[in-house]
Every structure is written in C-alpha cells, then in structure tokens.
Design brief:
alpha+beta, single chain
Length: about 160
C-alpha cells in the first residue's frame, strides 16, 4: 500500500510544473555544444533494456550527458532539505542519487562515459568539459575533423 504524503494544493501545483526536460540550463548547454560544431541526440536511452534516458547522447564517442537539478539530485553545494515531509523528500533525493550512481556504473560497464552537469554550472564551461571528453573518445577516423573552440557564445 502506498503511503499518502501530506501536501498543500499550492505545493502540488508548483511541483507538477517542474520541467524534467528542455530546461534553460539544458538548452544553453545544447546551444553551446552545437555552436562548437558537435552534434548529438537529445533524450535518448544509451543502453537497450535500461530505462534511463540521457539528456544528450554522443553515440560514436559513447558519451552520455545528464543535466542534474540541484534539488532533485542532491547537489553537494546547493541541495536543500525540505522541512515538510522531510523523510519522504530525503528518501526521494537519496533514491535519485542511488539511481544516478547505478546508471553511471551500468554505462561504464558497457563502455560509455557518463558526464554529470549540475544546473548551477556555467553552460559554456560545462560545454567545454563535455567537448573535451567527446573529442578524446572519438573513434580514430573521426578525430581528423575537430569542432571549433568555444568562445564567448551568446547565452
């Protein structure tokens, strides 16, 4: 039997409006990577049979990028722990952390590299980090054509 969580209509409304894809941070990261000449798939599952979706997927390089929200994934710098329904939220966020670790381990065992980008990170800095990893992991035949450096791109 499922436990009923005590909440207010305002909280329920606010939480139901939280986006889980195409957030501002994710879009800014995608724009920066695209401007650097990198191409990727959006919201795809890297592994068959595993119901985990990466925000960005670089297939030939086997790089999966996840843009994690500070609240939902328990950012060590910005995580907040709600006072209302504290036990429910702590378990929810800790469960998300466990799932993230499990996802990273599953990807690594299949030859993938998981990149975690926090929502508070500067999109250009995160894009440069992702770009470096993707280029380092590119198959030999694709290494000759290198995307351009990230500069001061519009945000």
């Amino acid at each position: 039997m499922r436990e009923t969580v005590q909440t207010t209509p305002q909280t329920r409304t606010r939480m139901s409006k939280q986006k889980n894809r195409d957030t501002e941070v994710e879009l800014a990261l995608r724009r920066a990577l695209h401007a650097a000449g990198l191409r990727y798939r959006v919201h795809r599952r890297p592994l068959r049979g595993v119901r985990r979706e990466a925000d960005l997927l670089f297939g030939p390089s086997k790089v999966a990028v996840f843009v994690d929200g500070c609240f939902w994934h328990g950012c060590p710098t910005h995580a907040t722990w709600p006072k209302n329904n504290a036990e429910f939220w702590r378990e929810k966020i800790e469960g998300n952390r466990r799932r993230d670790r499990d996802t990273d381990e599953r990807l690594a065992s299949a030859g993938w590299y998981a990149v975690r980008v926090w929502e508070h990170e500067d999109p250009l800095e995160a894009a440069e980090r992702v770009r470096g990893i993707v280029l380092d992991r590119r198959p030999e035949r694709a290494r000759t054509k290198r995307p351009r450096q990230l500069g001061s791109l519009p945000r």
